[in-house]
Write a structure and sequence with these properties.
This protein is of the alpha/beta class. The protein contains ten helices and nine strands.
Length: 257
């Protein structure tokens, strides 16, 4: 693909969408030509994110996320939508020949049974799961380059994989990853009381003690770490098969291999 790449950002009014627009602005080949939203349709990107008002994309009016309109206006789609939303939009966009990079968890797990177990919902497009490459380009570059489907890794999984990858053989069966997140990790629309500043400031706060589900991220993170470390990367000579089953060992703490 030569020249300028026209990009759509779906979920442009959220934290991830706004940060993505900022990063894309600094890239010499990307131009944000479509900003998709749900609750902020009609507002400009700059109105939702005042710090982006001076960028070229700041004047874009956020529009309904109609797959046909998205595909017609762009060469590449980033979906920064809440879990469960991308799966309903991705098939029509992909059918139109436009690649999709999903920043949520809809396509991170290739096993539909594990997806339904950890995300506690049926997957609406299970046939697409195995087509998505796990989006850690530093390790999985060749697989990403040959596909139009990319599921960006989440924050906890990325931190764990980067930390464990060089030592994956040595760490097998005894590595512990203790993860902490800020209150913005759950996105802009979560309003659970355990995320109020007064409850979170000046120290860590345990959450999801019974289910290991903090901000909807923990429960689905450790099977991603396990699966990626088991299979290795497409760039390695042979897959890594030394990791045992990942499991939570405490609130926000995981034993990935």
């Amino acid at each position: 693909m030569n020249g300028t790449i026209r990009v759509a950002v779906l979920g442009a009014s959220g934290f991830s969408g706004g940060e993505l627009i900022r990063l894309l602005h600094d890239h010499p080949r990307f131009e944000v030509t479509f900003a998709g939203a749900k609750g902020s349709v009609g507002a400009t990107v700059g109105e939702s994110h005042p710090h982006l008002a001076g960028l070229d994309a700041g004047d874009l009016t956020m529009a309904e996320m109609d797959p046909e309109a998205v595909a017609a206006a762009t060469d590449l789609v980033f979906s920064a939508l809440p879990n469960g939303t991308s799966a309903s939009l991705a098939p029509a966009i992909l059918d139109a020949g436009v690649p999709v990079i999903d920043l949520a968890g809809d396509f991170r797990l290739q096993d539909v049974k594990k997806f339904e177990k950890y995300y506690k919902a049926p997957h609406t497009e299970p046939e697409l799961l195995k087509k998505f490459a796990y989006g850690i380009p530093e390790i999985n570059r060749s697989r990403i380059k040959e596909t139009r489907y990319v599921a960006a890794a989440g924050c906890f999984a990325s931190a764990a994989v980067f930390s464990l990858w060089p030592l994956r053989e040595l760490a097998a069966g005894r590595a512990i990853v203790d993860g902490k997140t800020g209150s913005s990790g759950s996105g802009i629309f979560r309003a659970d009381t355990h995320q109020l500043f007064g409850q979170l400031s000046d120290g860590p706060s345990a959450c999801g003690r019974e289910t290991y589900d903090c901000f909807g991220a923990f429960a689905a993170t450790y099977p991603q770490i396990e699966a990626f470390l088991r299979q290795g990367s497409d760039d390695s000579s042979e897959p890594n098969g030394s990791c045992a089953q990942a499991r939570p060992v405490g609130t926000g703490t995981f034993l990935p291999c």
